């Protein structure tokens, strides 16, 4: 359950968002009432929850039975009784201000005095919604992304009178759902994610309108050259061209002519069969890498997004971390826009905006004050040691602040490393591999006694190398995956992979570079590279051969299909496959032994065993005997033998 005070939740609205939110809330263990204005809508919503839960159960992604989760979902038509004992109400009604205000007026009358009143609006002002109540301090925005069951992000938005404790409770509640909240500290139009998305869609539309680019060039360049998951026009077709048009109209912003023409012609995107691409008589978003002529000005688009991000930071709406988390989880951007801007150089971004501003006189290029300040104070990005972020490791003298990696080094010497790209199944991008390499190369080894690796989220340790990045990579770059795996393998302390979920391709190779592997029973293992026309490239072919023998290794590599954790244990691919409920305890037992073990003997054992595996038996035995001799002169040996004599646990110091 949850450690916040919320126990009973009411969701108002049984449509796409409403039933999705109710489902997520019930899965997290809360009792939830889903209310809509008539029985038909409510039962359609309920059936959708049931259908979705069954799909999750089929994919083994539900810890409880469908019936148990459903037993926590109640439905209602009457608002008063639905909210009368709710701790939290999430309103997910259609996006019309008058309707929302009416609902919040009713909530004010019927919901308990201490209830949190949240709106799932994606575009309307929280302050104005709250004005319909006599308790605006209890009203907060809680913007889930569609579909809630799949999307990890929730924006928690402050209205102008939202109390700190209301926002904090909303934040904790979102975390208790297993989702990632970001704070949007001021009630700005578009909140965080849609504010950054605006120029991604809008600027290419201006460029096409002005005859400076084609739709296909823009999409191909942003996807292939800059790694975005979808081209701006492809994305616009998917979400509906009229949606972006409406948002701009409402905000009083100029509308790119190409967008206005499409809306006027009724070509709104996929939903009408045609938009920027033709989905009925054509092949849909059929741009290909060759459409990327190299002329499309990607910097112009990214400079505008970075400018919006600077405005959000400068105005105190969100931190760079929140913005980056928002666009990664909410839009699937390959990295946060603030990180990316720091990488490009804020001076180059400012220069681009100033040039465009002078050339066109258009308001949208006016550089934001915060951006100007950052550049003026020398914070021009990563190479300068600071931009939106600080780069402590710019001088290369220690681990820094990583984008895709979280780590913690405890006083006892446990270095816990988490691969943090849950939205991409913790796929190993070049950057992520570089960060693993950097961390293990720069950490103070003397302070570490054991390392664990795990994947963020509950779906994957890692689903392999980042396939999105493949199109863009030269063969020599692509061969560059092994250094990080070698660093892991050669790290002088014992390493343990904690595997929950998919462990595939490069993810399996990372786990194999670790000394030990513990997995939950629901985990799946495989080398699916062959299905992509590839072979394992991070040591997999050779590691599997040595670990499993030719018969099993070839089955994994040639067939490319997955095996379950029990079979992985039987084959010797993992040390233990355990039920999820026992996982933490089993991992803790392994870690305790490694942390309390003699560091020098463990280091020598690791080296002798790793290097000996590839040497002749004579050479390997010579290595072992040399290591054995070496350890005889250590304090740890004296401590180990003394502890044995004195019948106590040894306390090794690594000397
Ligand atoms: C030297 C090393 C080479 C290699 O490692 S090559 C890569 C080898 N690995 C693979 O081929 C595995 C690819 N992934 C999959 O087959 C599936 O995923 C899974 C079976 C792991 C899970 O399937 P499901 O439950 O249906 O989830 P989902 O919608 O496919 O994945 C969620 C999001 O994660 C992205 N993703 C998954 N694996 C990768 C990857 N390896 N590289 C980049 N992105 C990946 C998806 O695209 C999607 O993203 P969106 O939600 O935006 O559609």
From TrEMBL:
Pathway: Lipid metabolism; fatty acid beta-oxidation. Its EC number is 4.2.1.17. The keyword Oxidoreductase applies. Residues 190-279, 299-391 form the 3-hydroxyacyl-CoA dehydrogenase C-terminal domain. It comes from the Archaea. Keywords: Fatty acid metabolism, Lipid metabolism, NAD, Oxidoreductase. The keyword NAD applies. SUPFAM superfamilies: 6-phosphogluconate dehydrogenase C-terminal domain-like (SSF48179), ClpP/crotonase (SSF52096), NAD(P)-binding Rossmann-fold domains (SSF51735). Residues 9-187 form the 3-hydroxyacyl-CoA dehydrogenase NAD binding domain. Belongs to the enoyl-CoA hydratase/isomerase family. This is enoyl-CoA hydratase. The lineage of its organism: Archaea, Methanobacteriati, Methanobacteriota, Stenosarchaea group, Halobacteria.
């Amino acid at each position: 359950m949850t450690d916040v005070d919320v126990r009973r939740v009411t969701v108002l609205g049984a449509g796409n968002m409403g039933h999705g939110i109710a489902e997520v809330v019930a899965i997290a263990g809360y009792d939830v009432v889903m209310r809509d204005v008539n029985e038909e809508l409510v039962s359609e919503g309920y059936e959708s929850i049931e259908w979705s839960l069954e799909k999750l159960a089929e994919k083994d992604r539900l810890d409880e039975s469908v019936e148990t989760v459903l037993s926590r979902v109640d439905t209602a038509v009457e608002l008063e009784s639905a909210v009368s004992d709710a701790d939290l109400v999430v309103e997910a009604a259609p996006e019309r201000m008058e309707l929302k205000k009416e609902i919040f007026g009713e909530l004010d009358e019927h919901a308990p005095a201490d209830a949190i009143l949240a709106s799932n609006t994606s575009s309307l002002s929280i302050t104005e919604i709250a004005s319909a109540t006599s308790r605006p301090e209890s009203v907060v925005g809680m913007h889930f992304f569609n579909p809630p069951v799949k999307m990890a992000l929730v924006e928690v938005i402050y209205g102008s009178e939202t109390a700190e404790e209301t926002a904090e409770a909303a934040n904790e509640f979102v975390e208790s759902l297993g989702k990632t909240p970001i704070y949007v500290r001021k009630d700005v139009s578009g909140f965080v994610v849609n504010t950054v998305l605006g120029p991604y869609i809008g600027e290419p539309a201006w460029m096409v309108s002005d005859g400076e680019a084609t739709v296909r060039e823009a999409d191909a360049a942003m996807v292939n050259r800059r790694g975005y998951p979808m081209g701006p026009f492809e994305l616009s077709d998917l979400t509906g061209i009229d949606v972006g048009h409406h948002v701009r109209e409402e905000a009083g912003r100029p509308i790119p002519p190409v967008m206005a023409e499409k809306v006027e012609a009724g070509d709104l995107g996929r939903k009408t069969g045609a938009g920027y691409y033709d989905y009925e008589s054509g092949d849909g978003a059929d741009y290909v890498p060759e459409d990327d002529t190299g002329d499309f000005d990607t910097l112009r688009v990214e400079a505008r997004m970075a400018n919006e991000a600077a405005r959000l930071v400068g105005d105190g709406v969100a931190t760079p971390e929140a913005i980056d988390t928002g666009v990664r989880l909410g839009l699937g951007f390959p990295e946060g826009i603030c990180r990316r801007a720091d990488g490009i150089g804020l001076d180059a971004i400012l220069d681009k905006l100033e040039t465009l501003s002078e050339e066109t006189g258009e308001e949208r290029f006016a550089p934001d004050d915060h951006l100007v300040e950052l550049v003026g104070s020398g914070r021009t990005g990563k190479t300068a040691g600071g931009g939106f972020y600080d780069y402590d490791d710019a001088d290369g003298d220690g681990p820094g602040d990583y984008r895709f990696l979280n780590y913690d080094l405890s006083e006892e010497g446990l270095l816990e490393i988490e691969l943090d790209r849950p939205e991409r199944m913790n796929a190993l991008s070049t950057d992520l591999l570089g960060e693993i390499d950097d961390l293990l190369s720069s950490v103070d080894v003397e302070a570490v006694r054991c390392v664990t690796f795990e994947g963020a989220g509950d779906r994957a340790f890692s689903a392999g190398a980042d396939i999105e990045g493949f199109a863009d990579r030269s063969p020599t770059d692509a061969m560059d995956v092994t250094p990080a795996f070698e660093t892991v393998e050669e790290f002088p302390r014992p390493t343990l992979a904690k595997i929950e979920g998919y462990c595939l391709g490069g993810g399996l190779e990372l786990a194999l570079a670790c000394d030990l592997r513990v997995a939950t029973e629901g985990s799946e293992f495989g080398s699916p590279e062959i299905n992509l026309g590839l072979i394992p490239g991070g040591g997999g072919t050779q590691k599997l051969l040595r670990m499993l023998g030719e018969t099993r290794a070839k089955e994994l590599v040639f067939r490319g299909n997955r095996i379950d954790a029990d079979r992985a244990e039987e084959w010797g691919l993992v040390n233990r496959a355990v039920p999820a409920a026992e996982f933490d305890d089993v991992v803790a037992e392994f870690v305790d032994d490694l942390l309390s073990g003699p560091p020098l003997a463990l280091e020598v054992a690791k080296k002798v065993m790793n290097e000996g595996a590839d040497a002749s038996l004579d050479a390997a035995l010579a290595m072992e005997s040399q290591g054995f001799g070496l350890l005889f002169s250590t304090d740890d040996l004296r401590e180990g033998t003394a502890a044995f004599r004195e019948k106590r646990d040894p306390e090794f110091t690594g000397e």
